[in-house]
Amino acid sequence: MKATIAVLPGDGIGPEVVSHATRLLSVIADRYGHEFQFREGMIGGIAIDETGDPLPPETVAICEAADAVLLGAVGGPKWSDPTASVQPERGLLGLRQHFGLFANLRPVKTYPALLEHAPLRPDLLQDVDILFVRELVSGIYFGERKEQADGDDSYDTMSYSRGEVEQVTNVAFRAAQGRRKKLCSVDKANVLASMRLWRRTVVEVHEEYDDVELEHLLVDAATMHLLTRPGSFDVIVAGNMFGDILSDEASVLAGSLGMLPSASLRSDQFGLYEPVHGTAPDIAGQNKANPIGMFLSAAMLLRYSLRLEREAAAIESAIDAVLDEGLRTADIAGSGENAVSTDDFAAAVIAKL
Ligand code: IPM
Ligand code: MG
Q: Does residue 89 line the site of ligand 1, with CB under 6 A?
């Protein structure tokens, strides 16, 4: 098949992992007889430096003309002055909003090869396989806001409409139907009005999915259950901010934030694919970053936007095989174990293909 992929490397380790991902996708294209055209655009801090805008119109145009978007990460200390008028993160949020990418899928699973060095007891981590479905274009991230560069009060508003909760919850229920048929909805219905609407709506939507078992957890309790009984979760649906927080917490289950991919989707096949990790300024430019989150995001792009399941699965098995052979980047190497570079790890995965 022919496909156009917008490539937005961004900042920090973004460009390093993205360049390996485009190489990986080119190898997939050769091997399976596809033609992928990559078109690169600027986003985040680098785009602020070059154009003053974290999401330049050319970048939006490149994405609009593409079948899917592959993104590295945005942000960094250079642009994190709290009094700055524009943040790199605005580029990413703007992209999610512009394309209406309301459903953010963040799968988290444990790798048998990594259990030994996990910060949690290995027996707790056996068979952990969770899919987070995070609402991505509403909630407190996009509610009414008051911000004064030098004022004494500011606010953000958490708001949800019934329709917004319905559409993301439908995605979550359908995903659960294709998995182990369990959905956990996370909210703060004991305190927040928007979250009471969330819970009511989830209960209503559940009526169409009576083969799925539904559980509700308050977000504070959820943070604890995620660590004490991670194996009991199948699909977890949450609003924008709670989903953001819980997915970082859940990365501990996988061994490192560097392991997690994500897909941001709407109702058609278009999607934005990015690792859950950020720009990791502390290791940027040092050839140390873990490319797995980025590679698995590329696999999700193949699966969801291009419907190339066999190719997606080939990437996932190649990663498994390289981990089984003992190769580790620094973030997942045990103390005393030799870590390999980003380049070497990526080359090993690509060689498996
Ligand atoms: C994420 C990130 C972003 C978010 C930031 C970079 C805006 O933390 O994708 O999880 O908060 O959504
Ligand atoms: Mg986050």
A: yes
Q: Which of 150, 229, 145 is nearest to 184 (CA)?
A: 229
Domains of the chain as residue ranges with CATH: 1-102+267-353 (3.40.718.10), 119-144+155-254 (3.40.718.10)
Protein residue with least CA distance to atom 9, ligand 1: 276
When pLDDT is cut at 50, 70 and 90, the band that residue 85 belongs to is confident
Q: In this structure, what token pair is assigned to residue 137?
A: 């274009």
3-state SS, one letter per residue, for 107-159: EEECCHHHHHHCCCCHHHHCCCEEEEEEECCCHHHCCCEECCCCCCCCEECCC
Q: Give 244 Cα–ligand 1 centroid separation in angstroms.
A: 7
Which residues are CB-neighbours of 159 under 8 A, at least 6 positions away? 138, 139, 143, 144, 194
Q: Which residues contact 204 (CB under 8 A, 6 or more apart)?
A: none
Catalytic positions, written as ranges: 141, 188, 220, 244, 248
Average the pLDDT over 48-73 and give the result: 98
The residues placing their C-beta within 5 Å of ligand 2, an ion, are 244
Beta bridge partners of residue 35, listed in sequence order: 2
